[in-house]
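Field reference: sequence -> structure
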Amino acid sequence: MSLKIRLARGGSKKRPFYSVVVADSRMPRDGRNIEKLGTYDPRLPKDSDKRVQIDGEKAVAWIKKGAKPTDRVARFLSQIEVDGKPVYTWKNSNNPNKGEPGKKAKERIEEKADKVVAAKEAEKEAKEAAKAAKAAAKEAAEAEAAAPKEEVPAEAAPAEEAPAEAAAETPAEDAPAAEEAPKE
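Structure field:
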């Protein structure tokens, strides 16, 4: 059986009041306790004498029996003195991994970073392809300008104009149908 000196919540909703108790660590927070050592009222100002009231001699006796205080109670006990000595020496706990993301979150961050890198690479490749296409078009234009111009036969010229005339007529045929639709 491991003993804990901890807080047990009392009071009503939005009006907390705590009892400092010795309890088995397997018991619920507000469940069965062995002994009540004092009280803690967080609503009182920090400099109030009634904010934390703990019987230091009882606390020392339970600590000698092997009870371990929780972090919050250890802070309170370090401020109480019995026979000129603090009841408990509290050390500030340090958890450097507290704010570190979990395993799944790390995986999501890595996936997101990979997507960003892939997007940058794709953008870079697209720019290089555009530069290569521009260079090829420029070379083709220079080659065309340097080559002697050939005369286009008369038969080929009307064939090129025919599709352009057909494309111009298509929207004109659609326009009257659009005008007839709003009639009531």
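Note: The longest strand covers residues 3-12.
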